[in-house]
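User
Take a look at the entry that follows and flag anything odd:
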Amino acid sequence: MLASFPSSQSDPEMVAKGYLFAVDGVDEDSVLRVAMKYVKGTVPNQERRFAPSAAEFSDNCRSDNENIQAAIRLIAKNPARQDDVLRNLSHWAPDAMADVVHSAKRLALTYTAGDDREARDD
């Protein structure tokens, strides 16, 4: 991602380490999805001449991951809303749709098995 911006810092290895530290614990798919959005210039309010700060990038990755997890929980709890959730998801994370459906089905099985610990976390 950093190579896509003309004004990058002088020590790319240290900059990359900062980004890796900032996204520690974030789902890899979210990191890749957000990095591609920055490269494509599709992040809202993005300064296109400069790479985002590590904190800004991390915030966007965490937000993406939270949105994906919320979609999974929503479909798992209410399968009738799957089409609406996927229609919304298709606008900002089309590559995640199959994984969301699969994960929602697995989570729904835990709900039907009587394990509602995940359901109470909301």
Notes: DSSP finds six helices and no strands in the chain.
